[in-house]
Amino acid sequence: MSWSAHVTGAGRLVVSAENLRGYLAEHAAPAGCADLLIRDAHGRVLLVEPTYKDGWDLPGGMLEDEEPAHAAVREVREELGIDVFAGRLLIEDTVPRGRWGRSIVARIYAGHPPHEVRTEALRLDPGEIAAAEFVGEEEALRRVPEELAKRLAAAFVAERDGELAELHDGVPRTTPDERLAAQARGARLALAERLGERGLLSGERLREAFVATPVELLLPQVYAPRPGPRGHDGMLQLIDCQVPRELGEWLGLVHGEAPLVVRYGDERPCERPAGRVVPAHGPLGLAASPYLGLVLLQHLGAEAGATVLEYGAGTTTALLCALSGRVQAVEPDPLLAAGAHEGLTALGLRAGVTSCPPPDLHWDRVLVSRLAAGLPAGAPDRLSPGGVLVAALLAPGTAWPAVAVLRRPRDGGDCAGTLLPLPRTAVPGPRGTAPGLRLAAAHLLREGGGAAGLRALRETWEAAGGPDTYALRATAEGQLTVGEPGSALSWEVPPTTG
């Protein structure tokens, strides 16, 4: 074949489109076939018995230099006398040439007739089809040849789960766990990029540890918000990463910015039914999302070899193991503690998980990832001189934490530091409401204060310079003083127990 070419403005030599068209026309290509999975009103599967080969088959046939879906529709029209719509591609199976002497790409689409199909109404092509019949799934798998049975079984699963199954000679190219791992890693990369663009993830070690550690496996089930009945509050529905149709929503929640609802009341995680729906206002168990954990760890600055005490056990524990390697987690809830220990072990990470801190020990870093209104009682006293404590603190009546960063002086004494809201884009609220004002309002506005109370607080806040962060002091027992004591923008936060 002779070739013609031209030089582009950028100085590149490229062949003409006519040459490429001729090359592709002569290029060897795999054979292709496309079938349709058609069901009747009872969910049974339509099978056909060809005249030219043994066994039963799905309706469809070989491609004739056309799009696969068009080929399937054409074959059904010619052989059965009905028009159908080729819907979603369910499976794609690449069959190597060793089986039939030529590579084949086989596809199965969901077939949707415009009206109910009855076998007695089919107009069979006598030269192609001897019989047609609707049968149950198990019967269909028994009737068709072994290689088609593998594809058909995968198509049944893909039809229910809403996924495309990619096969090689009838065997899935990836397992569900492998697909989950790949999608979750992509979600972690995307979250790391978002935080990096906003200047919230500048540490390379922390970024590498987060991308490499599948922390989401510690959150296999979370509750997702759902609208409630008309006139009622919203609801929450349990979603699971192992349910393919819920995987996308699960990834979005787990790698989102809001704290996660991981438990309702005293339910046992291993016993709650799939899809459970509960009221959105109730005894909810909250956990820090990986997003919040990254923000906390960015402030904590745990270095390799540093000793870390964490109040809470979960995704941040896994990251701390990767960063410092010397982690003690405290989780008084035995169910959460057991789940965290099991998840960390599955990830190959080692961390002590106990119900209370070991007595008389001090730590280079203390992290409070368990969401609560105040510091755990005695947490600041666990810091070594010069140590850093970082905590996620919930304001009254909210599910959005602020971040407390405290440092213990090297010569002892009370810890001092800063209370700051989460980054602006992470905290909901009316447009124009500054994070610092929102944080003060959550603590200082009493119930029933209304618009007048908010206006008065805004004036006080503006007179103080409109701070977004507040000075913070903590006693060894965990009592917090926010702002300048005695000022209008100051409040106390007592420690929590239990």
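Second entry:
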Amino acid sequence: MRVSRETAPVRPCRPRGLVTKAVAEVADPPAGEASPEPEAYGALGPRSYPLAAVVGMDHIKQALLLGAADVGLGGIAIAGRRGTAKSVMARGVHALLPPIEVVEGSICNADPSDRGGCKPLLIATYNPEEGTLREHLLDRIAITLSAGELDGVTAGWVKNVPFSLEDRVKAVDAASRFQDASAPTLAEAAELTESLRTNITFAREYLPDVQIQEKQIEYLVEEARRGAVMGHRAELFAVRVARVSAALEGRDRVDADDLQKAVQLVILPRALIKDRPPEEFMFEAEGVILDPALLALAQAQQRAQGRSGRAKTLIFSEDRGRYIKPMLPKGDKVRRLAVDATLRSAAPYQLSRRARAKAAAAPGAAIRPVFVERTDMRAKRMARKAGALLVFVVDASGSMALNRMAAAKGAVMRLLSESYASRDQVCLIPFYGDQAQVLLPPSKSIAMAKRRLDSLPCGGGSPLAHGMSLAVRTALQARQRGEVGRVMLVLITDGRANIGLARSNEEPDAMGPDAVKPTTEQLKEEVLLMARRVLVSNLQMLLIDTENKFVSTGFAEEIAKAAGAKYYYLPNASDKSIAAATTSAMNEAKISP
């Protein structure tokens, strides 16, 4: 087992004695002298690769952040074969930890007379090929994960299969650049590293005030019992992980996301009964993060189905579908005559009508047995099951365009393959360059979708307002044709628009080289106007925010509020997470009044 030497213990209290002169000089330089540059610290020892620059391994990085925020977890063990970045990630935590104070003149940097307990942050890495780690030792460590293929000790349902081709290329490129010159990599990761360090510092302050409900503890205990986990350490560690997860997010209460992490990181690796858990408890392959709210989505979907069974959407008309009830005809023409209702309407007047007919008829003339007048006629009201229309509006601009388009394409194909019985239709509208376009018109044909989605256009500007405008027009046209029942827009964007409606609509004043570009406020107002149009048109919308939270403007959430839309933050949305969020939103819409 290899224990990281650079993971320093956190400061339990202010030690007695003098602070080391060298530490004091670094923390507070003499007057008139500049603070030492980061480059100066590199001479003190080997540089560590920044944790923020590690490609993939998101579950391990999350576990390391949890351990750094709460040393009471008892440590983190990372298993993996050679070259899986175990030690790199362990060393990278050192840069995220707050500084500690040492005592001058002590070989152990502490006051020997101070017998206060020391709470170090233990981060252990090991290779299962070199031997099996004893389980009683692992049981005292809160989180045990694998940095490669699953092994016998850390095997659970936490999956981390080998990287995709794209991720492996990124990892090789990043490592090569760091070996050639470490300064650029350190500079690129400096802002994110500082942000993570600040989050850890605040999390330590928030942690004592974080509350967890009794029913949430019962849930964690039940999960441990269901997995036949021995002892009570798993439940105790799971509660701590849930609380520190909430603290890292700046919350004072534990929610479903925190419970999900606790089950993933603590309980499942210890489970003796390997029943396949629900999909919401699994890490997705190829380094793609599933919807962090997938547990809540699945539970909401189950509740929706439990209350109403399989919700159906009906379209009413006078010519197509199943006869459900009679109605007064609209206009002079009756398309489908409801014979039963018409006869019932005419029945009370038969005696009087026969008497009038007999009085007016010649002696001995035959009298009709039934008299039906125009006022008796009733039309059939027909109803047929209709699926929903899902209009995917995808931001195909910028560096993440290909990832967003690929995820949207996967979600479209996944929903189409599951929509035969429900008659759902799917439409895909990417916006990039100067305009949006309907890449896939409303359709339920898988073959047509494959043909249309073979090429994925992307890059250029972000005409967000035009994309929303085109989506609203497409949805309203489909509704007016009576082809679908419900319509839902699924907007996948980071909320950053830089192309105005005037240019997208090819207005002459906006197309010239000297045309005045709209300001940021004007672009935002155009987008919010389109969002309010979605609300006024009685269209439902789901907004999936893919913006990096460390540089977030929060505008995507404003769009969701203006449109009355459901909002999910999925910076690394996959096809499964998009499909799950869309299905959940549709189920909730079907049972809403």
